[in-house]
Amino acid sequence: MIFLETKQLTKRFGGLVAVNNVDFAIEQGKINAIIGPNGAGKSTFFNLISGFHPPTSGQVIFKGQDITKLPSNKIAELGVARTFQTTNLFEQSTVLDNVIVGHRLRTKSTLVDAILRTPRLKREEAQCREKAMEVLEFVDLQHIAHKPVAGLTQEEKKRTAFALALATDPEIVFLDEPAAGVNPDETEGLAELMKKMVNKGITVCLIEHKMQMIMRIADKIMVLNYGEKIAEGKPEEIQNNETVIKAYLGGSASA
Amino acid sequence: MTNVLKQRNVVIILILFALAFPMMTSNTYMIHVMTLSFIWMIGVYGLNLLAGYTGYLSLAHAGFFAIGAYSLGLLTVKAQMNFWLALVLALVITCSIGLVVGAIALRTKEHFFAIYTLCLGYIIYLVIDKWDSLTEGVRGLIGIPAPAPIGPITFETEKAHYYFVLFFLLLVVLIMYRIVHSLSGRTYIAIRNSEDLAQTIGISTKTNKLTVFVLSTFFAGLSGALYASFVRFIGPDIGSTNIVFDLLTYLLVGGIGTLSGPIVGTLLIVWLSQLLQDFQQYRMLIFGPALTLLIIFAPRGIVGAVATWNMNRKLKKYPNNQARSGRSRNDSLVKSEIVPEKQVKEG
């Protein structure tokens, strides 16, 4: 079943066409991957879907609703979460404090609630804290919930960023290079975590450069090069696709 | 838990000290200086909420301070309005102007926001200075009344005025404490930390930033109105950029983005400059280098430095971290320098 799809999605930055006419359908309950050489437009593609950049033309459709023109916070409310290449966490604060705010979008208390410390605020604070602990347990970080982010390993920071995205109660998460800068053992752990998300009913779409991992866990792969979709299919199809090999290795594939 | 108890004790002791201060000295000048520093603190809190907790450094706040002061002054002196009504109206006027200005200013970010608001502050100063028929221009406003008595309580003496201002300061601190420790506060900190990340987790950065901007002009306006009724005379100078840099200095020394920073910074600098008064303009020879060193070595001010030190101690408590404790300590020091700024993000 098609869950989220892009139709002729295009983004131009001046003369540069970063994303060119990309049609892509993300299937529910699967791990969808986007790969491609550096500068292929993968991150821009994510930014278009999550509402950071308005596309030059084309559409993004989520569960039948056109979300092309929605601001990113509204898109998040609909259940689309994302992480960044750089985790952007608040280093001085603890893991738990970083994640609590992730559930803010599901709460209603205002500044007036804050100043008067109303029962609604107290209830919602408890709710956010509970949610944060729940997702920290899910990503297996509950033991360092009270540790400042500054002292975490790269892998733990990635997990914290996952937790923050999960705290928004998403139906689909976009992960931008989740395994960048972590060692092979840890990459394995993160791959397991992504499978765990899918088992929980959350659709995953990721950008990644670690081919071994991608080929093993992805159900569907799209390859971008110079902003254009050059291939799409199951991992084995992509591995044997000549255009893809050419894009990665350059020159003629037979050489 | 012990930490919380300790914190509560410190707060109680500080409040008791503040309450007892006028009785400990018969020197009205000391009470006068203390009252003034309380008034500044309220303004610094306004700046702190916006610059420290939300990451938008506004240099227009002397302007809002002056708007608060002049609104109160004009309404009481020229319109002969009751003091309390004028106070409420002054705050409404400041916030309304803050709302309009904020909606425009917040279209910019980072350095551009700082420069834009610096210009705005200067325009506000110019308007006050040149609009003779309304503000009396350089002659200033004279004879602003003290707060009208509430029943048997009058505010004519220095001591009474001290308690009057202290009441508002405590109220502001309480409001700040509640905001910072609420979901709203977490929202603002998330915006300061990374606006992009904040948006992806569903935070409407526009609405939140505007709310904070208006609230911070409210504090600045309150501070200005209290100043006007305390000093009884105001001139256009109170809207000059010098004032906003004074406020900013108090905030930086105490600790930007910390709850007690405004109190620590303001008290320290106000009293230090009183002590160094004999040196007159040479004071700046001491202040300048001291401030520069502070920014280099303690970018989050005195309170921030203590907090960082505490955090590093906390980090060490995690045994699995000991091998890397040296590195992570350096990490956190480096990171703490860029807290108020936005981290550079990749798409």
Terminal-residue CA separation of chain B: 42 Å
β-strand percent of chain A reads: 15-25%
Helix fraction of chain A, binned, reads: 25-40%
Order of helices and strands of chain B: HHHHHHEHHHHEHHHHH
Described by the principal axes of the CA atoms, the overall outline of chain A is globular
Helix content class of chain B: over 70%
Radius of gyration of chain B: 21 Å
Largest beta sheet of chain B: what is the strand line-up? 1-2
The count of β-strands of chain B is: 2
**What portion of the residues of chain B fall into strands of 2 or more residues?**
under 5%
Q: Specify the structural class of chain A.
A: alpha/beta
User: Counting H and I runs of at least 4 residues, what is the number of helices of chain B?
Assistant: 15
Mean pLDDT of chain B: 84
Describe it.
Chain A contains 10 helices and 10 strands. By secondary structure, chain A is an alpha/beta fold. In chain A, the strands form 2 sheets. In chain A, strands 6-7-8-3-9-10 form a 6-stranded mixed β-sheet, sandwiched between helices. The longest helix of chain A has 20 residues. Chain A is globular and about 65 Å long. The model of chain A has no long low-confidence stretch (mean pLDDT 87). Chain B is an all-alpha fold. Chain B has a domain of 239 residues. Chain B is built from 15 helices and 2 strands. In chain B, strands 1-2 form a two-stranded antiparallel ribbon. Chain B is globular. The two termini of chain B are 42 Å apart. At the A-B interface, helix 1, helix 2, helix 4 and helix 5 of A face helix 7, helix 8, helix 9, helix 10 and helix 14 of B.
